[in-house]
Structure formats: structure tokens, C-alpha cells
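The instructor's notes for this session suggest beginning with a concrete chain rather than abstract definitions. Hand out the sequence below and ask the class to guess, before any prediction is shown, which regions might be ordered.
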Amino acid sequence: MAKGDDALARKRNRVRRKRLRSSENAVSARVAAIIASKRRRKSGKRRGCEGMCFSLPTPEDPFNERHGKKSKVDEPTDDAEDAAAAAVVKDGSPRKKDANTKKQPPAKAGAKAKSKAIRERATETEEGLVDFDRPSKFLVVCLNAIRDAVAPEDGGGSSIHGASDWGVELWRCCSAPAPSDVLDTSGASATLEQTAWLVSTACDIVARKERLGMVVSCPFLLYIVPSQEKAAQVRSICKPLKSLGIHSVSLHPGASIEHQISGLKSCEPEFLIATPERLLELVSSKEIDISSVSMLVIDGLRCLLDLNVTDKIYSIRDAISSNPQIVIFTDPSDKNVAIMARNLLHGRITKLSINDSVSSRSAFITQHVHFCPLEKQKTSKVKEILEQILESHAKKTSKVLLVAANGQKAQNLSSSLKLENCTVTDDTHGNSFMICSSVGLMNVLIKDRETIAMTDIGEFEIVLIVDLPPSVDEYSEILSDVARHVIGGEVHSIFCKTDAPLVKPLAEVLAKCGQAVPEFFKNLEPP
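After discussion, reveal the predicted structure:
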């Protein structure tokens, strides 16, 4: 009996599926890169050459921007992933699964994770909205992929979620509608955890832009490293993201330039890790175009200064015609680092640190301790310090925060400082005013230690502590929060004889931060 057409079609389809399964991993790296690039270009939006869109507009989607797909509100949410994302912020590590949960085979689990990641990438930013209270689901997927791929001999990836506080702050700086540049002063270079959060954040931004139909420039991320070893380390962290559609290429003197040129021609990498010399060599020969880079990372600025490649860093920055977001990792101990960071960062910045040491969190902050013998002479001392600040910041408008012991002292100080050259601004308590002079302007705000917690100290470049707190920890807390959005800052404090018990701990803080210890401390040390 002859077989029907349906049976023959099923047989042909079965043979075809078997052939595709057997040859899925048999393609070359170049062909796989081309296929992945084509999938990325087609993701989320119908191409014009594929015909007309016959779906009619609806009140919910009058311009057919969703292309017939349901909105995020109509689709069922994944409570498990929401809980995992919230756990990263709250606990620093993903929550453990229930012991009664049935384990899946590794092959099925991997395939399910990959398909789930692609689905999250497609639906995460359906309407372009970002929840800044916690990381996105796709960001958590990227972090988990890196964590699972880190080899045990390299320390494992279990500590990646432990850096969630720093990572979430970085993610907010980069994903905000008006992103700010980032200056990290934790150490000489980025750690494995910091690099993992950084590249995962970049992946999240790329996925969101592609979903919104925006053109993503390649390379999107340019990661500058000082050595071949550092390039290999960063490349190994980015490699697990290939299964999520993010390709990375490393350029360094350890490989032939012909091999790297062929690698660049075979795919369009979203992430580019390079040493300054090799990158400029390829840019000058027009083998790669970095003019449209959206994010520039300089890992180990102090080390790059020691290698005398300052001019190359500036040349790389000038080769980028766009206004990229810049992230710098550096050791703040050298004054030349602050000079170069100022030349590279021109807009609003956010200073971050993964550790809680005072020296790291108060990087680039200058501390001044002024001696005042008697308590009743503090008002005249405050006027003298404010005049010095006006002269040192000529032709600028400075924001100064004065910290008093309590509300009564703050009121007395405010009334005594309102002279003929001061104009009072609108403030409920009358503790905010402006000092006008021929040299410059100064906006002064007076707060007491009880209400300073409600004040954003990071917005002030200069802080004058009129009454030192009884504990040096409170001084360190104020010092760590000053001028978080600029490179530099000043903390002035008035030291009286009654503050003699603070001589030793305050001298230790000054020494840790690389500041000069005043000479009068030797005469005030308690017996």
C-alpha cells in the first residue's frame, strides 16, 4: 500500500530535523558568529523585506509598535525570577531552591536556561521602562552565567553576588536616563566581581536598546587594560555571555595582528578588550572603528600612567566622536591620577568603592584641621576660613556645608554670619544664605549633627565641621560622603582644646588618608 503525502512529508521533516540537530555544533566559529549577528538584527522587530504587517492598530497599540505581541501587563509574570532578582539586592546572593524541587538533567537544564534568557531579553523592556529599585531579570541571568563559568582554581564565582551593593549602584549610574560617569577608587584595578557586574550591566543596556528598536553601535563597550594578562582575564569573564548573544574580542600584543584582524572581520563584537598600543595600531590602519563607542572603561589608570601611555589614552578618547559614558578603576594615591581623571571626566560623576576603608571612600578629598583655643572664638574662626575658601575658589560658586553640634548652635552661628555682604535666601529655618564678594559667590547651608542625616552631603564640595563630634567614626562618615559627584573636595574642621581626646584617632585617620598631621597635635596629646 502506497504511503500518503502526509506520511512522506512527516518522514522528510524528521530526517531534516535529525540532520539539523547533528550539525548544529558543526559550523565554524565564523558561520556561528554570522548566524548570531543575523539573529540579533532580527530580534524584536519585523524587517521591511519580510512583507507587510497586516495587524490592525488597537487602542492599546495605535502605531503597531508591539508588532502583534502582548504587552508586559498581559503576560504572566515569573514570580521565581522576581524573587531571585530581589534577593540579589537584599541578601547579596540568590535564594536557595526548595529541597523538594525536582532536579533536571544538565542538558535539559542548560537548554531551558538559555531559552529562558532569550525570553527574558525579549520581554524585559517591552515598554522601555526600568525599575531602578532592583536589577533587571536579564542582568541576573548574565551574572549567573558568569558565576557558573568561573573555574574553581580562579576562586569560583560564588562571590559575584556578594558585591551586589556596589554592583546595583553601578547599574543605576549606567542605566539612568541621564547616566553619570563612574570613578572607582577601590584598588589598582577592577576585581573579578566588579568586572562581572560591569559587563553584565553593559549587556542589559544593549538588550534594552535592541528591544526598543534602537541601533546599537559595535563595539558598544571598549575596555582598556594595561597588559595582556589583564586582557585575558577580562575576556574569560565575558566569554560566557556569548550564549546570550554578546560577543567579545581581545586585542593585545600577545597575538599576531593578522590573526586579530581576521577575528574582527568574522564578527561584529559588542565588547572590545584591548591594550592602548594594539588598539591604536588597528585604528590607525582603519581595521576597526571606535568612533561610536557608547561605554569606555579604563581599568588600572595608575598602572597606565606608570607605563607612560598617557598620550595614547587621550588619543583613544579623541578617536571616539560620541559622548561615551566613562568608567575608571584606579588607585587614588598618586596626585597625577586625579589630574588625568579630571581631564577625562567632564560631566557629573559618581565615586564608588567596593570596600569601606576611609582612605578609599575619601579619595581625592583634602582635609584641613584649624586650631581654635577657645569655644567663644569659633565664630571669628569660621569667618576666617570662609574668606580663605572664597579666595582659593575665585570666580566660582562654591557650595559649603557648616556642621554644628546642635540646633541652638546652628541658629547662633547663622545669625552671627549674616553680615552686610550676605544675602539671605529662602529657607524655612533661616540657615541657608549666600555670601557675595568681589572674589566669588558662596552658598552656605548650616546643619546640626542631629539633622545632617537628612542632608545629601555628597552634593557639597566643601564641608566645615564647626564642632567636632565626640567620636571619630562620625567624622569618618562625613568624610566618606563628601563630594561624591566631583573629583576633589575639602573637609575643614575646627579643633579646640576640649577636643584633646580626639587627637590620636583623628591623627590616625589623617595618616591613613595620606594627609599631613598638624604640628599642634603633639602639644595636645593626652598624657
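Then share the key points. The CA atoms of residues 224 and 298 lie 5 Å apart. The longest strand covers residues 397-404.
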